[in-house]
Amino acid sequence: SLVYLNGDFVALEEARISPLDRGFTFGDGVYEVIPVYNRRVFRLKEHLERLENSLKLIYMRNPLPVEEWKRILDRLVTENAGDDQSIYLQVTRGVSPRDHVFNDEMQATVFIMTKPLEQPDNSAGSAAIVRPDIRWQWCHIKAITLLPSVLLRHEASLSGAREAILVNQGLVTEGAASNVFICESGKVLTPPKSRQLLPGITRDLVIELLQQNGIECSEYPVPETQLRSADEIWITSSTQEIVPITVLDGEMVGSGQPGPLWQHAARIYRDFKQEFSQH
Ligand code: PMP
Fold first, then answer.
1. Nearest C-alpha to atom 10 of ligand 1 is from which residue?
2. Which UniProt keywords apply (predicted)?
3. Residue 82 in 3-state DSSP?
4. How far is CA 34 from the centre of its chain?
């Protein structure tokens, strides 16, 4: 497939990066994952704004103007296989001698690839485990430094679960690679934005769509005890969409089946996507 690397469009097999790239030596960079439906980039403005914010928080300038990002993404999405794709883009602080200290002269490395995206079928429900949030204090940055998340997802997969839902000081933060919603007495709750969680693009969209459709949804701290007694649990992310969690640490969530609010939310989300991809 065709990828973009520092100004060039090349085959993935041809792309080369120095071992002194700070992404490799320090995990010093940020990224985005953006879904594409019918060759149209979904929630592009929101993803580019979050990228801008991640860069600012790690003291980097955005290496490309918005119009250039759009032009590059359009070309990749047009030339690569699949009407539906997922874009992975990463910006690192570039190549430098291995020294923690950085300066403004460093030339960012920009790498972008896409792959075909299968529409998820979430109707069966999935399992999750609950784990202490062992990540750092700045989880609102979409940093490429993902070792804790990799280990947490490994633990989840060893337990036959899809996701690890994380708890920090008694409160649910998010999943290792997703945001978390719970349902209780017909209402939907999700933890408020803070430095302890990534402001998910899907999270924002789900809140907006639920409210537009008359389903009560609020941002409110969720203690672990409330997670464990919830009627429904969902996790959200751009490529997985809305996933009903039907088993938590081996125990049934509610009836053990995807719940009625999930059914409703999934329908609303599907219709919104469909509307988007037809325009
Ligand atoms: N939280 C974390 C830690 C994530 O890595 C992700 C994305 N994989 C999300 C939440 C969901 O974000 P989005 O809806 O923007 O994909």
1. 178
2. Aminotransferase, Folate biosynthesis, Pyridoxal phosphate, Transferase
3. coil
4. 8
- Portions of the chain given CATH number 3.30.470.10: 2-116
User: In 3D, which of 29, 30, 70, 34 has the Cα closest to residue 237?
Assistant: 34
CA of 105 to the centre of ligand 1 (A): 31
| pLDDT tens, position by position, 184-199 | 999 999 999 999 999 9
E strand or H helix at 83, and its extent?
A: none
Task: Name the token pair of 162.
Answer: 């899809």
Asked whether the beta carbons of 251 and 161 are under 8 A apart, the reply is no
Residues of the chain with CATH 3.20.10.10: 126-277
Whole-complex ipTM? 0.99
pTM of the model: 0.97
At the top level of CATH, the class of 2-116 is alpha beta
Nearest CA residue ID for atom 1, ligand 1: 178
Taken in order 48, 175, 157, 151, the sign of the CA dihedral is positive
Judge: domain 126-277, CATH 3.20.10.10. Answer: yes
